[in-house]
Amino acid sequence: MTNNPTEPAIAVTGLRRSYGSQVVLDGIDLHVPEGAIFSLLGPNGAGKTTMVEILSTLIRADAGEARICGHDVVRDPDRVRAAIGLTGQFAAVDNFLTGEENLLLMADLHHLGRAEGRRRTADLLDRFDLGKAAKQAGATYSGGMRRRLDLAMGLIGNPRVIFLDEPTAGLDPRSRRDMWQIVRDLAARGVTIFLTTQYLEEADQLADRIALLDHGRLVAQGTPAELKRRVPGGHVELRFADDLALAAAAATLNVAPDPADESLVLRVPGDGGVRSLKALLDRLDAAEVEVDGLTVRTPDLDDVFFAVTGQPASGVVPAAASATVSASGSEKVTAR
């Protein structure tokens, strides 16, 4: 537990860092509560890795204050290091050691007793589904296995805060989703996660709160839903079986069809919320207009980044999706 139960796991005030004339972090303020998954988004060169390096005591800020679990990163770095785990952009796995030996080495570095080190190693190998490969050299591991082993190595000391710097970079979609589940499980155990990523879908799927970093400044903070609500443009696409149903729906909802669109689709502005969607369908039902299918289109984090910075999220991987429901009620994901 922290010294003050009301103090956040990560507290940053006025953080600044420059490299020569280039300002990388320009007065950053943020607070991350215990047990939360916090995601820092931004394009390449935005300062995400610099932020992680400062918070994990690898480099010093030029100004400002940062505290981890109540400990100042400058005045009390040893206690900060004892409270954190760090998984960088590249897996720190020794290719010549087996998976088990990599973990035992980390146990020794944490000054764990022999029995305790072996107990934690066995537990982590099992938790990260690496038991069958425990005796294999790290060089034989796939990319996903290496990332899981790397994260397991960061957990050997039971950290309360874990910094994940681009943890799924280069992984295939299945390995990425495996890593997402691991992150969720860690947060469920009360571990605080500080995640930097270029994958917008990753932040959307995992984070309780998101901050967008651009040119050294935090330009927006909030939950994924709060950030998306800042951006206009959400709508519902209603599909109909014929022109008569389309015309009846347009008259009922007082929405003009797009004359250039011949797909029997009517686009109705809306936030895609359950209440507004139900009210929309109730109006059509009362007018005895049958809907063949619908798609809810909502702004995504790429739209948010564009809205708050005035430019596309260059260097950030978009992953826009929308829920599509057919007349039978089945659901699929359609890329925007």
Describe the structure.
- This protein has a domain at 229-335.
- It is built from eleven helices and 15 strands.
- The chain has helices at 48-55, 77-83, 99-109, 114-127, 143-154, 173-188, 200-206, 224-229, 243-253, 274-286, 301-309; strands at 10-19, 22-32, 37-41, 63-68, 71-72, 84-87, 161-165, 192-197, 209-214, 217-222, 235-239, 265-269, 293-297, 321-326, 331-335.
- The strands form three sheets. It has a six-stranded mixed β-sheet, sandwiched between helices. Strands 12-11-13-14-15 form a five-stranded antiparallel β-sheet, with helices on one face.
- The longest helix is centred in the middle third of the chain and has 16 residues, at 173-188.
- It is elongated.
- The two termini are 44 Å apart.
| DSSP strand tally | 15
* Terminal residue distance: 44 Å
Mean pLDDT: 86
Helix tally equals 11
Brief overview:
With 336 residues, the protein is an alpha/beta fold.
Write the layout of secondary structure elements.
Blueprint: E1 10-19, E2 22-32, E3 37-41, H1 48-55, E4 63-68, E5 71-72, H2 77-83, E6 84-87, H3 99-109, H4 114-127, H5 143-154, E7 161-165, H6 173-188, E8 192-197, H7 200-206, E9 209-214, E10 217-222, H8 224-229, E11 235-239, H9 243-253, E12 265-269, H10 274-286, E13 293-297, H11 301-309, E14 321-326, E15 331-335
Parallel strand pairs: 3-8, 3-9, 6-7, 7-8
Antiparallel strand pairs: 1-2, 1-4, 4-5, 9-10, 11-12, 11-13, 13-14, 14-15
